[in-house]
Amino acid sequence: MADRMTTEQRHKCMSRIKSKDTKPELIVRRYLHAHGYRYRINVKRLPGTPDIVLRKYRTVIFINGCFWHGHEGCKYFVMPKSNSQFWQKKIERNKQRDIEKRIQLRRLGWHTIIIWGCELLPKNRLTTLQALEQTLNKIFLLNNGAKVTAEYSN
Q: Which range marks the domain in which residue 86 is found?
């Protein structure tokens, strides 16, 4: 199907897509803050400029849009039919960069958590956020030398 917008309209539309303070980011930040977690946002000194940095937990959180980061198997990630070569290259570059940045962060001793936009839709939101909190608690225990028993590990 052909694009219904002119080139100028499409450019204007795409240029308005935010990279910071997106709705999924705000959902996660509000949840973390309400549950007592303190964090920094968009820390440029770390590889990949993570969306959320929890220094106490030595953990960074990336909230990825399913389209822009190529969420495999997600119904919200559909490769555009127009200019498909450009989009395929762009999304592959994004995926490769994401992997490289996660490796760099791991080498620096940081834990990395990725939350996909589709995981924050209303039907999945609470489960995703509770799983995030459980993961952070587990990381905290591991970082501080506590033993995590099989009963509490996933």
A: 18-143
